[in-house]
Queue: 3 jobs
Job 1
Amino acid sequence: MLQKNKNSAIRRFGYIAAFSISFAVVVYAGDIRPSVEVEFNMFYNRNYPQPLSFQFREAKLFLDANISDHATAMIEYTMKDNLVRSQLERAYFIQHDLPLNSQLTLGQFRNPFGYFDPFTVSHSTTKSTALTPDSLMPKFMLRDLDVGLYWESNGEAITFGFGVTNGNGINDLKDDNNFKDIVGHAVYSFGELQIGLNGYYGKKNSMLTGEVVNSYSSVEVTAAGVEAMAYIGEATIAWEALVRNYGTLHSAGSYVTMNYDLSSILPTLRATSRVEVFDPNRTVLNDESIQWAQGFLYTLSRGYLAKLEVVLNLENLHRRANEVFFELEYEL
Amino acid sequence: MKLSLSTILLFGCILLQQALYAQDQLPEKVHTSIDKILDDHLAEIENTIIQENEFETKTVLLVTVPLENFIEDVLFTINRPAVIYPKILYKVIRDQFRQGKSREEIERLLVTMQKQNKFEKLYVAEKQK
């Protein structure tokens, strides 16, 4: 019995030692960089019952690896909602410098449909993660996290790529149909102006087809989008418009965002403005939403940021939901 | 002379800090999709410039923030890893300060060079030497 316990202890010690050595080798011998980003805030939102609060808003753990000149990998684990809900976010390997100046991404990544962060309608107007709640346009599952392959060629003037994914979001091993979703993306650059096209085709299983509940039915999802980005002086402007058909539901939306550097007024100060229009159902009249968001970001020091965001709903339907956010953020 | 453990540790930390911020320690090329890691690399470049040159800390610190914001705006938006060249960046910023350029001019220059892909061109030229 004593011998058995001794062997077990030795084995346990062996595992711990092996793990520690492997960890040390991975972290220090290669160009692999672990990183922790914890956002601690003093937060003001006049719409909340207690407008002034402190909170840990989010914690992210990263492992970013420059494996060689031709290969990189990344793992991102996020704890959200006051650190209660956590999940593996991006986790992928990229092989660079393939023929046609291309790269291949394998793993779990954001679908390459249009722009996403921070110009996306579903993210913040200012740096890092969103202060504002999800904005008007739903994500449409067009640029959510998904699992699959993505190949992209980056030329001097033309960039194009396509991805094949499960179409079911994060890697939960619940791919509910054999049809894989396809995402395509192409961009042409005219100096400091880039114009791009996006396409999406997939099938989602649905419990409801018309009025009939049927667990084996599927609905077709198609989407098309155009995008443009320009650098004008100290400003970067991005515009995007998209339409999506989810079975019989037809939606459309568009936004324009401008980020501008105000260092000439105050070092490290920058501002961002976004106007967004969203029509959730094109067959219903007068259900459109229009939103304007204005944000300011000031970097006090490395890791210390001050943010101010104002979100105004311009049409009558949501006007009472206007919001003001102020946040002091510290990133470890 | 007796040295306490804390004194030895303190000296150790100072030496480690000195070793951390050396031009030779800067990587040549970095791919990253993480804003925090981009931030860390740019901070390291600024700290190395401060440590190895006679420039005022206040002038150099955060000089790369507009560049960082631009990279995050554009590259992370279009879902592509950022590639930075820390050694090249170090040399460009150091040389600009040595030429007496103002902080604002340097900030603007870094963004312009990034837009025109000039850091990569300098990196390729150095590699071919």
Job 2
Amino acid sequence: MSSSASSASTTAHPPGTHLAHHFQTPAQQFEAAVQGMWLFLATEILLFGGLFCIYAVFRANNPEVFEYAHRYLSKSLGAINTVVLLCSSFTIAAGVRCAQLGRSRQSATLLGLTLLCGLVFLGIKYVEYQHKWKEGLLWGHHYRPEHEASTSLHAPPEAGTADTPTTASPLADPDAPLATAPAPTPTDPDAPSATFAPPALAPPGLRGATAPLPELTGAQRVHNVQTFFGVYFLLTGLHALHVLVGLGLIVWVALRTLGGAFSPLYFTPVAMVALYWHLVDLIWIYLFPLLYLIH
Amino acid sequence: MTTINPALPADQPPAASVPLNYLTERRGWLSWLVTIDHKRIGVMYLVSILTAFLLGGIFAILVRTELLGPSKTIVTADTYNQFFTLHGAIMIFLVIIPSIPAALGNFVLPIMLGAKDLAFPRLNLLSYYLYVLGAVLAVVSIVMGSVDTGWTFYPPYAIDPTHARFGGVIPVLLGVFVLGFSSIFTGLNFIVTIHKLRPPGMGWFRLPLFLWSLYATSIIQVLATPVLGVTVLLLILERALRFGIFHPGLGGDPLLYQHFFWFYSHPAVYIMILPAMGVISELISVFSRKHIFGYHFIAFSSIAIAVFGFFVWGHHMFVSGQSPLVTVLFSLLTYSVSIPSAVKVFNWLATLRGGSISLKTPMLYALGFIFMFGIGGLTGLFLGALATDVHLHDTYFVVAHFHYVMMGGALIALLGGLHYWWPKITGRMYSETWGRLAFVLIFVGFNVTFFPQFIMGSHGMPRRYFNYPPEFASLHQLSTLGSYVMGIGFVLVAGYLLHALFRGRIAPANPWGGATLEWQCASPPPTENFATPPVAGDPYDFSDLEYDPAVGGYVVRTSGAAGANT
Amino acid sequence: MIGGLLAQATTLPSVAPGGRSFWLPPRAEGAAAQADAVFYFIYWVSLFFFILIVALMVYFVIRYRRRVEGERPVGGAAHNTRLEITWSIIPLILVVIMFYLGFRGYMDLVNPPAGAMDIHVLAQKWSWNFTYPNGHDDPELHLPAGRDVRLVLTSNDVVHSFYVPAFRKKCDAVPGRYTYLWFREPQPGEYLALCAEYCGTGHSDMLTRVVVHDPADFEKWLAQASDPFRTRSYAEVGRLLVARKCASCHSVDGRAGVGPTFKRLYGHPVRLQDGTTVTADENYIRDSILYPARQVVAGYSPVMPTFRGQLKDREITALIEYLKELAGHPDQQEP
């Protein structure tokens, strides 16, 4: 720390306020911390905003993919997670209030409850992820579903060659112009991505290629289902990472609370961690309907 | 007016005991590595950024040397492609984006504001270490090789797994991600500092324009950089795990990447230029000893540029296949950003009129900025118009345009600011003669390097070309010659500045006659900047300052009103 | 009034008929003149303001130079609202005009007329392929003069961009979608076409010609190009194909390139990346063309794109015949 603390400010430094040398009053310091934290939360919103944007683009271009694939998700588990996080937001807010009132033990207890809720959330997420992994419901190339979604959307098409139009998606394309070209064989799924059949005539815009993927057979009804899972894992994965970081922060402030570091004069870290945790909760509130409750 | 802190003997001759300042108060490597003093952090940034500039500059010289001949001259195509990629990535992420805010802003902002430090000093140190980490990752990527995607990392090429499977692309993307956070935290720090740590009397419209520009820059840093973060994260996942967001074969869309990338990277160029314009406002005013003209317009124009800059990213994608409607919208919005920039230039000219103009080195850089930013900005008009952009996009015309604004603009302003605040930072003066000579070499060399590139571009010479049609050979050779001249100029700058560090004349507190608060404390300042918060006045009112030849600098006029607010 | 401005810009001596000027190469397409006119409008406006700014700057620096350190300046007002508004409004008007002129040219660009001939363009690393209405594939773009042509572009691998400086036109070729570009009444001649979106090692070698024929000659060319077998032996056709489709990466004279040389390839042993050795027979060559990732030669990168769907079986046979010739093989086929 700076050696100039003694010569620095002429204002009194009340003990226990942790007033830094470059601030005039504890209130000024606290306001600065709050402002800084809100700015940081703004950056987090923009970070997730990018992913929500990707969600919007993919869903707008392939609504049938999202409608179909979300059936693989368990609404009840998602709902439980939502309730759990809402509760945890309450407990941490109460914890801040207790810290503000100087009730350290209650504050630590409430932080502990928040931690518990967070762990339940992560536990449920682990269950969901494990299910997806087992069922082959992953992104990109790794999407190899063991079973179809619970409700089939369309009559199964004939098992056929690449130039049989699928009856599935209403946006399925007519025969690709080079349909007579032999499709890439399934034995080299990792063929250089340099090549794939030119797209069928598609309207301009952000629609991806609708050429069938090499390793999928004619039993696939809706094209490009893996894009949903790519978006799903991106959104929930980044969110889960933030939950994990949040849990670490909660442990840290809880330990400091037990150590007597906070008082009505100084409880800034608890308040800041709570702000962060509220954002993490808020993001999930958006994720849940967007991923689990698609109509 | 502003009060001098009487405790600081700024103008004692060197023979007397040197007063303690931020450089000398604590000694040793460790005291620097764990410092939270914004001045020391600024100096560390300065050294790191100039080192990165050297590295990026070496790549530039290699690129230009290869282009002496229409076919292979010194390296293969693959190596050349890595050269221009690394040149771009280093210069943009390790040099220009952090440069003025991190190296000069960190040092100057609190003092100019009248504060003792930034709002979050430890976050500031973290920002610096993130910068170092990003730089290390960049070096790792150079060593691992195969970073030949262009600094824009467009998929599918950047995610093609058959090429450079374990090359340096992921490390450099990680480096960019980390550098993004360095930038975000710096911006966050600046915003809270300007909001919360102003001294009594420093209302918003008493802020020096350099601080307005840093404020506007910080807004962009905080709002735009996260999008870069998520973009490179997606690219890494795409490359490592084949996520399928951008690859058409997996249901993705390459254009989505371009939209995401440019949503950050266009505001990023305003991160580069706004602080530069702030520096120029200071230099023009001080070296004309005249109040800046149109203070309010300049302040608002910085905010306007920051805001409008978020709405124009699609002008990098006019021929990409995006829809005609958005193409037209982006063209119209692009022109909106040109007006605030033009207004600043006119205000600077009006400041010069009726001033007392001194052609010291910082002022030469400021005038050079007006010349080169003028060309750079005006050539942007060609690129904003759709009919002409279809011809000029992805040619050397674009390369010349952005070098004129980024290098002829932002880098020149960095050099100007460095020469301006050098006495304050180091306590020494440099040689004016060498400073002016080096400026002339840099100015002439720069124009000889980049002006021919406009001609090449409008004649159809595409960018990122290893081989080129022989008809462009003489223009390329001229351009390369200019780059060597410019390089010599930079070497000279390094030389005389290093010499000044050890043998320069001791600097007075206020060698140039600036009226902003940093000139009220000693050169170099003490660690806590000010013992008591100074009182703010008009930062462009020079009437109280007079030149004292005994000191070699300016002092507050002692005859007449003392101390109190005016 | 806008039309008048444009007309004036077009008749300025720097924009001569034929189009070559200090800044711009000759032009050979119907809509290029308008693009050039916009260019020169912006140019003259910019030049005027630049000279004004620099002249004022130099004048002020000389007139108001500091003679004594510390002297008081003449001074002046620190702001003048009316002036500041004026010099905001005037540039605004000028740039709106620039936008409008650019917009008009662009609207023309994105609205191809109904009767335009369609040619499909396929970009890949690192060559172009043009498919004509009769199904013929060619590495060069041949057009009939005076007729509107619409290009439908896509890519096989990464983003490329098709650029013809003489036409002042370019458009990205994006994998997974189609993009469009059209030319109005191109003029006879030969022009350079380049790739204008960085795509890797061979980006700067991805050149091709745009050849604009007189209309009757175009039909003749198309007929002859469509069936090269009519007048040539298999090996000759193979030689042409190699020159057009393979030569950017494979030499025929033994020189090393991005890919192995074709000289003395056929019938000889080839060492593969996995350590095995195979003989370069007909099947090996065919597989290398259609499934290039399966058997990569040792010491080379797996960057060869596939030609599935681009080469007909007959053409593959022709290639093999030519390779036999390069290896000096006795039993070559005849058509």
Job 3
Amino acid sequence: MTTSSIDQPMELHASDGVLLALYDHQRDGDLESPRRHVEQCAECQARLGAIAARAKHVRMALAAVPTPSVAKDDFRRRVAEARERGDRRVWRRPVWLAAAAIVVLVGAAAALPIRDWVRRRLVESRTAHAPAQPVATPSTQPLNRSGATVSFAASGPGFTVRFDSLPSVGTLTAGRTTADQISARVASGAGTGGDAMVVLPGELLVRNTSAARASYDLLLPSAVTRLRIIVAGRVVFDGAPPTTIPLNRSK
Amino acid sequence: MDRASELFENYHAALYRYLVRLSGDPDLAADAAQEAFVRLLDRAPMGPTERAWLFKVGTNYVLEGRRTAARRSRLLDGRLAQTMGDAPGDPHANVEAEERRRIVMAALSRLSDKERVAILMREEGFSHREIAEAVGTTTGSVGTLLARTLERLARETTFDREAL
């Protein structure tokens, strides 16, 4: 049944979000019903027109922000060099904190603020899976002791643990868990090397120093079938868990 | 074409453009793009989710890096002009282009991170579902977020008082 816009009850008018989804030709969700409504509703058509005008205006406005030209070959060379070094502390800025979906600090550098929406995702993730030790707000609940744990969802069959530096001493013990989340724990030696654990998609980055003496326990769900451990750019383990690896064995 | 070449060809220009707009800082954007590609090349191919993953890593790198007050200040007061792109030859056009760029960057900087990421990802052609995943909301509500942000950004980037 179709109705004119005059007959259409207010609650059937499409929201701005739905109108934008229609304008953007989205395929997720059921847009067929609102699409039929808009075709019959002058008011919604007018609002759709306004949204289209705004979208075009914003596209033109953003074009006013020029993108500096970067020679593709130069960029490829930079990436290749960074990969060869295997050391992300070669950036021009010496204090990089790296790409962090979720940052959990363990040790001295404990009070980094992170964006609210990133924090919210951490809270949601941890609430959903009942972690071993809640860390709802890392900036105010720093994990600065042995036993500190971070839990997070696996993003695929492969998982990488990457250490910035070759530590003074320490081990990583990877075992299995029946839980559906990956769990990393500072087994001992927390705070000896400014350690911080950064959770990235498919990866745990440990920001340690050569003075670090920490050991770690890692529990992996059965869905994770391949583990890579990289220390200071060198792959020290690549295979199926469980395993125990001395982190300083490159010495 | 090897994998690295293919990835650069497919994603580099869009990722860098997005990160420049997100950060207002071409150097930071270049670092973030580099970090994202290094990480991507260390991984096994991910298929259709590769592009979203790349943008996510770059986004997080920028948001972490932009926290310092100095960098935010540089973004807000728009002193990046000299580092951005090739200036047109016409001095008048140059001034006008710079003024437009300053207005847009100031408007972007007033958005929340979530709004800025969402609207800029939309400009790069991501679906509402991908944007929702990136900013941690539902597909149903991301449309409202985008529409509201579009309205605000359009209002705050009206260069010549045209009605919107």
